[in-house]
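User: I'm writing a short report section on ligand binding and want a predicted complex to refer to. Could you take this sequence and alpha-D-galactopyranose and write out the structure as tokens? A short remark afterwards would be nice.
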Amino acid sequence: MPETTPKGLTRLAFGGDYNPEQWPETVWQEDVRLMREAGVTMVSVGIFSWALLEPSPGAYDFGWLDRLLDLLHDDHGIRADLGTPTVAPPAWFYRAHPEALPVTADGTRYEFGSRGAICHSNADYRAAAANITTRLATRYADHPALALWHVHNEYGVPVSACYCDSCAAHFRRWLTDTYGTVDALNEAWGTAFWGQRYADFDQINPPRLTPTVGNPGQALDYKRFADATLRENFVAERDILHRLAPGIPVTTNFMTALSQCDSVDYWAWGREVDLVTNDHYLITDGRRTHVNLAMAADLTRSVAGGAPWLLLEHSTSGVNWQPHNPAKAPGQMARNSLAHVARGSEGAMFFQWRQSRRGAEKFHSSMLPHGGTDTRVWREVVELGSAVDSLRTIRGTRTRADVAVLWDWQSWWAQNLQWRPSEDHDPRERADAFYEALYDRHLTVDFAHPEADLSAYPLVVVPALYLMTEAAGNNLKEYVDNGGTLVVSYFSGIVDEHDAVHDGPYPGALRDVLGLTVEEFSPLLKDDRVRITGPDGSELTGEVWSEFVVPRGAETLWTYADGLTAGHPAVTRHRLGEGSAWYVSTRLTAQGLDAVLGLAADDARIAPCTDLPRDVEVVCRTGESGTFLFAVNHTALDTKVPLDAHGTELLTGERAAGHVSVPAGTVRVVRLDG
Ligand code: GLA
Ligand code: ZN
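Assistant: Sure. The structure tokens for the complex follow:
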């Protein structure tokens, strides 16, 4: 079994990406001195260093990296998360192998001069990546600084799929392995439609630019193929590292909840890494950033199967790549960091240690800003370093969740193809909205794959899973039969794994468990609303979507009061076996989601949390070293979080009994007695 925690790291991870190659070596001395001052325990190095390590083909210069690792370790006890630099092949490589540059669907080849310009099917790239990885592993396997391998960087961005000829050949091999015969492929893709039938695998190309909408089965399989190809390259590097440097865990940094990066299936990736690590940046689009942060952390923990994971990158303050990049408010950085720790992270790392003077990211915040140590950010970094250190006993504990939300990247790939009933329905929007509604009920969420064992959860929510296999449908039926409470949002369970509509009425995968059929979808025009009314006279609002629902065993709770579907059921409940299955056939606003989830939570016998203000999070980590209650106050008011036990607050050292006081904008962590 490979190791799953950074070797030799006895505290929580605190530090960041360190790019000393951007600075003269004299600066390194100051860096490590200040790292010590800030309580840095680990840094990520070498991620973009290929051009320095192998300045020309087959000529290596490891001297600087030797000196750097020695400096970190010998004099300062700082652990190294060592990158394989394979996300940034050198200029000489592309001169020799221009066809390793990726090609877009319309046939444009990218140029060298940024990063991540890689065709992952390219044999020369694969050989060169394996070679530099082998050299690094051979040289540093026994280096005392080495704690963790950091393979590549953020697979899936900036290029998730390449459409070149080598990818076409590779795709055909992948299809042959997947389908065996071209007839099976024709059936799965429905190529009888528009005369798209293939007589041989040789006739198949990537889904390149077509005059109108291409075959959805082909497009969906290309997503799977591209994801699998990235993973092949990760696994190739990982296996070299395992072989040459046994005992050192291998990771690659994910971006689990970033909607701009939905091109990789992190359920599959989570099984391949030794330690799940994640990068998270606040998306400043006007929504509550701390809710998205909590969701990212919960999703990352879920991808790790509940095991501890590590926040490998976030920012001390503003980033540089969004339309507007506000600074973080005083205290916000620490609150962000500790909110990740509450949800399972074994530390808090940043991009990056020292702010660059040159290059594309010079306006991205860092631990050590352009302004140096006489700055607010630096003072907060030093403070956070000591706060993180005082939490070291939580290592290895696990976050406890109350409910599960189903999540499936493959379903989104299918849903987001063209020619759907409404372009305003965005499955990710529903996932965010349901998560937010659960967050506001102070419930901690695990995410789960639709075919996972759900028996541990009293409540399971399906925000929008258009693609759902028959196996997933059966899984949900069994879950409800055995006493679970299920809440399903509209346009779920419609197609199978090939984007073919399940046989019979909608929603094919779910009609038994929901006790209903949907005769027709009736999406709303932009800005249209429908009113839905409940038995108690309550009125809720639907947007974007409505449906003609026909109950076949389910009871109607809310009914459409206007619009084309007036008089038809809008929200239903089906009592089945020991449990119940709710269906919501329109896009409810926050108020409606809260109302429906409140009733479903009653069915699930989840007691409502009435004593916590909005935007005060309470999350528990528990394990051999004890139970730790994290209280995160995102509000501008001081608050008191009730405790039904005694304990010690770890950041202040104060005793807590009956409640813990959490000043505005801060975090408190109580280790409960006993
Ligand atoms: C990503 C990358 C880093 C850096 C940061 C900036 O997460 O991994 O190299 O570009 O974004 O936010
Ligand atoms: Zn390619």
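A remark for your report: The pocket of alpha-D-galactopyranose (ligand 1) is lined by residues 153-154, 279, 281, 313, 319, 351, 361, 364 (CB under 6 Å). The chain has three domains: 13-163+206-399, 403-603, 616-672.
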